[in-house]
Amino acid sequence: MSTVASSSQLTTAEPRRPWAVSRSTRLLGFGRILAFAIAAFFATIFTPLANVDGWAVAFLLINLAWVIGIASKLGAKERRDAVLRVVITSLAVLAFVPWLSILVTVILKGYRAIYPGYFVSDMRTSTPDDELNIGGAGHAIVGSLIMVAIATVVTLPLGILTGIYLTEVRGRLTFLVRFIVQSMAGVPSVVAGLFLFATVVKSMGQYSGLAGGLALAVLMLPTVSRTAEEVLKLVPDDIRSAGYALGARQWRTALLVVLPTVRAGLSTAAILGVARVIGETAPLLLTSLNTNGFVWNPIGGTVASLPTYIFAMFMYGTDYSNARAWTGSLVLLALVFFFFIIARRLGNKSALKANANRRK
Amino acid sequence: MTIVETPEPRQMMVVYSRADRIFRRIVTGGALTSLLLLGFITAFLVMRSTETFREFGLDFITGSEWFSAGEDPLGGAVEGAVEEVDKSVFSIGPMIVGSLVVALIAMLIAVPLSIGGALYIEFYAPRSIYRVLVSLLDLAAAIPSLIFGLWGIQVFTAIGVRWATLLNDRLSFVPIFSVEFENFGRSPFVAGCVLAALVVPITTSVSREVYSRTPRDLIDTCFALGGSKWGAIRSVVMPYGKSGVIAGAMLGLGRALGETVAIYLMLNLVFRYSFEILDSAGGNVASMIALKFGEATDKEISALIASGLVLFIITLIVNMIASSIVARTTPRA
Predict the structure, then answer these.
(1) pLDDT tens digit string along A164-221?
(2) Among residues 182-221 of chain B, which lie with CB inside 8 Å of chain A?
(3) Looking at the partner chain, which of B117, B135, B144 has a beta carbon nearest the beta carbon of A336?
(4) pLDDT digit string, tens, across residues A226-262
(5) pTM for this model (two decimals)
(6) Where in chain B are the domains?
(7) Domain spanning B101-268+314-329 has what CATH number?
């Protein structure tokens, strides 16, 4: 260090990154892709390939041909590498395209029927085929929220208790409980609906929001208890030992030391469960059906919900009812994403906290 | 010589205080409730479907006829159809086969796409969009299946029918691609494509998760030995993540088998064994239940519950295989 500092002719070398892709190369690559896209467009005109999907196929083929052409100068290993890069990239694009298309479709078709009244009015005084500036899905939103609330109230304590059982109590049935809860995640939603129909609906003699909420609870329980278990597993054992060292019994340690550290994580568990079930349609078709007005009483007959509202509007089959269905989808998707993003926020926070704890 | 008496080793034992015992009992009770819930569902399904199984036996699973003789919703038989009441026949053979066929089509499309997608996100995507892609993937897995169904009918069917026409034009000598009537909409093939779109996010996110846990050292070793990126993926990443991908695919399969509304909207249900996947006639247990449920008689409800039980058992087996693969092969972090 000192020798360098003492020399008078000191020049600081600019750090260079010879491996970095230069600006001109990047521009060239971009231009190449643009040229291929245009070539693919002409291919759809002059060859049997047609439409968007035909264009995509042509684009892929041109890309592949170019890569093979370029790579023919290279060795076998590099050639395979280059070709597979194109193949994997196009598989990934294919995997992402459908639901990007869904996102765009829902927004483009869904914004048509949105007006402020859509969120507060119901369909009692309007038919699905009426102009889009009357009627709305307020009753469906309320119904969905009520049923999801019922499901959450039932599931959250059970899920958290199951999580505590699997991580803190660790009784003899740990393996069995974990296995069963995991396989319960596979209960087909329509079967949950059938079950609640044949028990609650039959014994009450009418369809109800309660039955719908309970059907959602059956589907929500595995998600909540598994997430709760994962979160509780992240709590470092030091914290538990600290609790015991201070003379706390197991119940005090669990309730006053372990649980508070994962409050955010448990909220994540609940919200993920909500996001999972709020779009479920099949069980609600069998338990709560649909109705045209606001229903606040969960045991007072049929209740509308966003999924069944969308379903009914779609099945009605006219242009206006269709627009209502898409707007309903937009609202539903917005709700799902809203819950999901909150869960992620909370999850990140709790992960940070767990890490911080670990570092101490 | 002296005899050294070794003291008896002390027995370590945990003695829980009374408060602890109560706490443990409450928690165990909560866990057992979850356990019993599944047991109760199963027991209930079995109980309510015995009537159907006793009447139709194995024919319920192999037969291909569903006929509900007239019965008044109020309980009595419709006038003039009294003798018909007992002629009801319920069997779901084509529905089971149809469920498997559609799910198989979906998996054949979804698995390569998912592997490609997962590899791309983990190893090819620019670092700047990596996080965005991962969150988008999670969001995609949360899109309700109803919306997939709507999209399938109003957007995808046009494209799917074109592919089906193409397959039929070029490959109609293959039995499964031949059709009786050239009407390709609402066929198992198109429904399978939509189902694939629905399964891809699930399978991709599980596979990506496993791929991302590949030890960095192994990959670097591969590069140090002169391997290319594809070489590293093929010889290190793919073998390492194989079981995870299988588990993800099984999870997706379970989802595909139990899917109701998307298939309900995308598929014509026909009670006839058919392996012509481009024909607009297929079967699916879950959507059959939703379809027949509306005006079902009491006896038919029992048959529907029996169908639910069959579906439940199939998906349960698939899920158990998946979770045992995961449990057996989860790489230790």
Answers:
(1) 999 988 888 888 888 888 778 878 899 999 999 989 998 988 899 999 999 999 999 9
(2) 197, 200-201, 204
(3) B144
(4) 889 988 988 889 999 999 999 888 899 999 989 988 8
(5) 0.87
(6) 101-268+314-329
(7) 1.10.3720.10
The chain B residue lying nearest A279, using CA atoms, is: B144
CA distance B181 to chain A (A): 24
Please check whether residue A151 touches B, CB under 8 A: no
CB contact B330 to A (< 8 Å): no
Tell me the two tokens of residue B300: 């038919």
Q: Is the CB of residue B192 less than 8 Å from the CB of residue B277?
A: yes
Contact of B312 with chain A, judged by CB distance below 8 Å, is answered with: yes
Q: Give how far A91 is from chain B: nearest CA, Å.
A: 5
Phi, psi (deg, nearest 5) at residue B185? -65, 160
Put simply, whether A334 touches B (Cβ < 8 Å) is no
